[in-house]
Design brief:
It is built from 13 helices and 13 strands. The longest helix has 22 residues. Helix 5 packs antiparallel against helix 6. The chain is an alpha+beta fold. The protein folds into two domains: 212 residues, Jelly Rolls (Sandwich); 118 residues, Homeodomain-like (Arc Repressor Mutant, subunit A, Orthogonal Bundle), CATH 1.10.10.
Length: 344
């Protein structure tokens, strides 16, 4: 038996085609009392991100509308909100199973201020219209009032078409490029036509949207030459596998990686510029592994996990962890307990 829709949420009849189902829903905070609107929105999107409420918004009310369409592995949302603060903490990333990519296309407003991401040293911090988010990595967003169209694409689809896809986390694309313009136009068309499509048509339209967006990011990374892109992807995958296999080795350094794999230092360092450098990538991977181990091994002391992953001291590890994720290792463990209690 289907549960009745929550206040403000209109559940629509699923549209079936050849066994596939297009699930649709609409949520609007207008149906709630002013003091409950932001909390209702927080509950509605809480399975994906945490909304950080402000006292002013709790008192003054919050405007939020979202239409959601889901079929197979894809989902698409059309969302209009007031100013919003959202975050996906490392505690949530390490405990839930969200492993897709979210491509946000801003129709009104812009992406705002996003932190908690590794950025290319030369990255343009100006407002952009398209932003990619890897749901397997933490982030914190302060977003102005906006209308944003979001396409959620399975990790394996993005990884198959885009070399070192995790490095696009937080990367924005300006609207001037042809592929960006085409992606925005197609997303707007999706928002208009999805209510009339059946499941098969919706799936095909979302697949096309994903292909356009991945192509836009591939062009942003200057990987248009197929042969060169394949070679670069293969080498970078080799480096990533080596790093992941040796995270617990104290002598894991950029120089050690280059020497062990017999690669050209300048080339590898340039290819990892998007990550902030190979050294920054190694440190980030160690910190992400530490976050996962803090969850998997609650009986281990923080100092044990720090030393196992090559940090020289617990204080160095704690400082690095706090800079990367906005909380201490002990705070993260406490947050995991809270999340699990809320899910119980």
């Amino acid at each position: 038996m289907n549960a009745p829709p929550a206040p403000g949420e209109l559940a629509r009849e699923p549209v079936s085609s050849n066994g596939a189902v297009l699930a649709t829903s609409r949520f609007d905070t207008h149906a709630h009392a002013r003091g409950e609107q932001l909390l209702a929105w927080r509950e509605r999107v809480g399975h994906v991100v945490d909304v950080v409420p402000s006292n002013r918004q709790l008192e003054a009310g919050f405007r939020g509308e979202i239409d959601r369409y889901a079929t197979g592995a894809f989902s698409f949302t059309d969302c209009t909100t007031d100013t919003l603060v959202m975050e996906r903490t490392v505690a949530r990333v390490s405990t839930d199973q969200r492993r897709d990519y979210a491509f946000h296309l801003y129709v009104q407003g812009d992406a705002g201020l996003t932190t908690g991401m590794r950025r290319k040293r030369s990255a343009d911090e100006s407002a952009t219209r398209i932003v990619a988010i890897d749901m397997n990595q933490p982030f914190h967003v302060v977003r102005p009032a906006s209308r944003v169209l979001s396409l959620f694409v399975p990790q394996e689809i993005v990884d198959a078409d885009l070399p070192y896809a995790e490095s696009i986390h937080g990367l924005g694309i300006a609207p001037q490029t042809p592929m960006a313009q085409l992606s925005l136009a197609h997303a707007l068309s999706l928002a208009d036509t999805l209510p009339q499509l059946d499941a098969a048509q919706a799936t095909e339209a979302m697949q096309v949207a994903a292909q356009l967006l991945v192509s836009a990011y591939r062009g942003e990374a200057r990987l248009s030459e197929r042969g060169r892109a394949a070679a670069q992807a293969a080498v970078m995958a080799q480096v990533r596998r080596y790093v992941d296999a040796n995270l617990h080795q104290g002598d894991l350094t950029p120089s050690a990686v280059v020497a062990a794999l017999q690669l050209k230092r300048a080339t590898i360092y340039r290819w990892f510029e998007q990550e902030g450098g190979l050294g920054a990538y190694i440190r980030h991977r160690r910190l992400r592994e530490a976050a996962d181990e803090l969850v998997r091994f609650p009986h281990l002391l923080v100092t044990e996990i720090a030393y196992r992953l090559g940090f020289n001291s617990a204080s160095d590890f704690t400082r690095a962890f706090r800079r990367a994720f906005g909380m201490s290792p002990l705070d993260m463990r406490a947050r995991v307990v809270e999340l699990r209690r809320a899910e119980a």
